[in-house]
Design goal:
The chain is α/β, with parallel strands linked by helices. It has two domains: about 10-100, 60s Ribosomal Protein L30, Chain: A (2-Layer Sandwich); about 110-260, 3-Layer(aba) Sandwich (Alpha/beta knot), CATH 3.40.1280.10. Helices cover about 40% and strands about 20% of the residues. Helix 7 packs parallel to helix 11. The radius of gyration is 20 Å and the shape is elongated.
């Protein structure tokens, strides 16, 4: 059992708390039973599996399954597990897996494009909702939060493994390409004249969402051929971006279900 915080593996895993080290090592950190189970269910292989004996006793079958797909398996003390986890109260298991290759997405029916998103919890929630409605995928600007951030993975509640996610520094060019191919581009703006439920989401559509405070940049907003707003009471300035995404995505799902 690993008990020393000075162990080379422990030091290596603690570095994965930082985005630059996740990129350098080509690994990401999976924390908690739900995430490691979701990774196994998605057929992902693990680089390292670290667990406490108490966790192994509680989850004997999952432990057995994970040891079959992990290159390195280590029992660790509770103190070591706390040191390598980013959560305050980890539930007894932490693993690493190779970072996925971020290739360009291929939207054909319903996609989400998110610009300059900074909160990992918001991104994880948007990923979870997008997967729930069956979206093609999510495209994120390169200046947004790292989609491999441990909090993004946790907030997605395992749906990170199910939804294709891309990152690009040329959102405007990509969106314009899809517009030329006939996809409807819908920008969420507070000054739009139509509400989001007045938009025809039965058409192939890309939904553009912006930064939590500043919204969409002028350049990306101008790629849209339709703008939509979410009505708010005068005293309310804006909605949380993850809530806005959920409202619009489920309106698209409602319309498509009614038309089916």
């Amino acid at each position: 059992m690993l008990t020393s915080l000075q162990n080379p593996l422990v030091k290596q895993l603690r570095k994965l708390h930082r985005a630059k080290d996740r990129e350098r090592q080509g690994l990401l950190l999976l924390e908690g039973t739900n995430l490691v189970e979701a990774a196994y269910g998605a057929g992902r292989s693990l680089e390292t599996l670290c667990y406490t004996p108490e966790w192994q006793t509680k989850h004997p079958q999952l432990w057995q399954d994970l040891t079959q797909v992990a290159e390195r398996v280590e029992a660790v003390s509770p103190e070591v597990l706390i040191a390598i986890a980013t959560t305050v109260h980890p539930d007894g298991v932490v693993a690493t897996m190779p970072r996925p290759n971020r290739t360009q997405l291929h939207f054909h029916s319903l996609g989400i494009v998110v610009e300059n998103l900074q909160d990992p919890g918001n991104l994880g929630t948007i990923i979870r909702t997008s997967a729930a409605v069956g979206a093609d995928g999510l495209l994120l600007s390169a200046d947004s939060v790292d989609p491999d951030h441990p909090k993004v993975l946790r907030a997605s509640v395992g749906q990170w493994f199910q939804l294709p996610i891309g990152v690009s520094s040329t959102l405007v060019d990509i969106v314009q390409t899809y517009r030329c191919q006939g996809m409807q581009i819908v920008a969420t703006t507070p000054n739009a004249t139509q509400t989001y439920w007045e938009i025809d989401f039965c058409r192939p559509t890309l939904i553009l969402l912006g930064n939590e405070g500043a919204g969409l940049s002028k350049e990306l907003a101008e790629t849209a051929d339709v703008t939509a707003k979410i009505p708010l009471q005068p005293a309310v300035e804006s909605l949380n971006v993850a809530i806005a995404a959920a409202l619009i995505l489920y309106e698209a799902k409602r319309q498509r279900s009614c038309a089916a």
